[in-house]
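hey can u run this one w/ alpha-D-glucopyranose bound, need the structure tokens asap thx
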Amino acid sequence: MSNKTDETFVNQLLSQMTLEEKLGQLNQVNPGDRFDSSLLREGKAGSLINASGALTGQGFSDSGSAELSNHFQQLALESRLKIPLLFGRDVIHGFRTVFPIPLAQAAAFNPHLARQAASVAAREATASGIKWTFAPMLDIARDPRWGRVAEGNGEDPFLGAQMAGAVVQGFQGDDLSAPDALVACAKHYVGYGAAEGGRDYENGEISEPTLRDIYLPPFRAAVQAGAGTLMSAFIDLNGIPATANRRLLTDILRGEWGFDGFVVSDWESVKELIQHGVAEDEAHAARLALQAGLDMDMVSGVYLNTLGESLQRGKISIEEIDEAVRRILRIKHRAGLFAQPFTDPLRAPRDLLTPEARSLARDFARQSMVLLKNDRDLLPLKGFRRILLAGPFVHARGELFGTWTPDGRAEDVTPLDEALRQTAPNSVELWFAETSDLALHLAHHADAVVLLLGEHPARSGENCNISDLSLPPGQAEFVQAMAALGKPLALVVFAGRPLAITSQVQVVDAALYAWHPGIEGGAALGEILFGIASPSGRLPITFPRATGQIPIYYNRKNSGRPINPQGEFRTRYLDLPPSPLFPFGFGLTYTRFEYSNLTLSSDTLRGALAISAEVTNIGACAGTEVVQLYVRDLIGSLTRPIRELKGFQRITLQPGESRRVSFTLREEDLTFTRADGAFGVEPGNFHVWIAPDSQSGLPGKFRL
Ligand code: GLC
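ok here u go:
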């Protein structure tokens, strides 16, 4: 929150600024190769975005670097008031040390690890002259056709909020002015994941209760964690583009949540208000956004070019401009930019790609992979002398990064085949085949086969939406042909989204979802395949049986004719079972866990209620279980989800070991947006589960 020093400094500086200088602070520029650096000397830019590529070949590296930022900062400090630039960049899941994609990070159900990874990313990015990242991406996503599902934390608001708080704290640390602190930007505020058809940039319709209870909680958590900035979404939400939506940007964000940082638009989304059909021209677009509470214009230039004229024509007030400038100066001051505008160029060689960072990336990749099937305990691979690994990912390097990794370098990655060789036992002979023809030939002489399939990162991320969730062309046929040979068969899928691998799962013995696992993904995969590590990931998003099942998510409403496969006139498809392929929260391990003795401290929740269960490792090896807590509010003034995640704990148990796992439920955990529009609880009966996933578990009940 603001402190007196900030405010005194900011208001004192503001009082000296000309209108031109004020508009300059609201203007973010992408310094492409035709960049006119006089903008900086004249104080007409407050921030540079992705200052990579600029001046390449003139002695500067091709990505964010301290020298490049210091060069531009020097020009900005030649301006009259010497207001430092804020350098922004997409540091989404790592800078040079690329961590698993955020969806994979969510699968680890380990916010602490996400915080550590964000802290590494902050150290590496700030050493490279970057002080502001456009992350974390917090969009709830229920439609895997949408390419950006890779960048978020999946479908659940509770998990999303836990990850939001952890990543913001990891980026920003306790002191935003520390040299290795990175200003966070919670994006894309809000509802971007509801784009119709999973088509990026399409409009979305979200009811008020769903907006409040599903899409907003991760953003609220980010603000509560002290996020310095937010980014408005491209989306036309319920008829009002988020970039010009005063209720979102001012009434909720500032009025209800007390946010005192600033909001940046998405790329040219201010100017795009014209295309949306709510603004007649650029000046109108700029006024709509500014008056809604949008403070900085990302690269469209309409703030710089038109707000002065709108002011002169009395269409906006100087107070509205001042308030946006004040918010930006406040974050710059809080980030220590006035005191230390330059980056020490000696940091990067020391702070980038350290062995500790690589080790953390490997641990994160291990914890994020999800074991979906393991018949006959095929995995971990034991007792096989010759193992064939086959598919387009056998030599993967940069392909393991996933989307949004502008500063990752493929040469930093051990090729997948080499990484697997390094982790395999000496007694095992590994063969590799990239093409299906060679693989089908070699398979006859192999003792077991592992297919390395899935989607290239180019099919994932912004505007990479797909209409069919099947594996990419040719891969389904490859699996069927390989399965026909009757060898022990495991499938590893690399992807940025859930894929409808229904028919593949039926014919393989084991299936492991590796997502896009980052710079150390190869070694992590090898450790899991050969039993050096055990899989512990759980699905942060429902896996549909087919594209036609979308939308399908666990926290659904019951309907008046709930799912009942036997029942007539029940919600279902004629050609598909009503259940998903794999539910939210699902994941296997190399051992087995048994849940018993659910206990509640009372049958009525007054203030707080303790709920616990015994979890026992009944298998032959150690394993990590993600124990989950779900509730169901049976009767509400609005219909209520059949399950809501309210807690989770990762526990590691040795064979035969038991542990009582406890959760505490409080009244505020049961709040929701009621029919009267208020956010609160309603007395009544609740069901509760302590469970391994969102479809099973030990049932209990209590009253509120
Ligand atoms: C893109 C994305 C946004 C990103 C920004 C800057 O269009 O929507 O997530 O941070 O532009 O690259």
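The chain has a mean pLDDT of 96. anyway lmk if its weird
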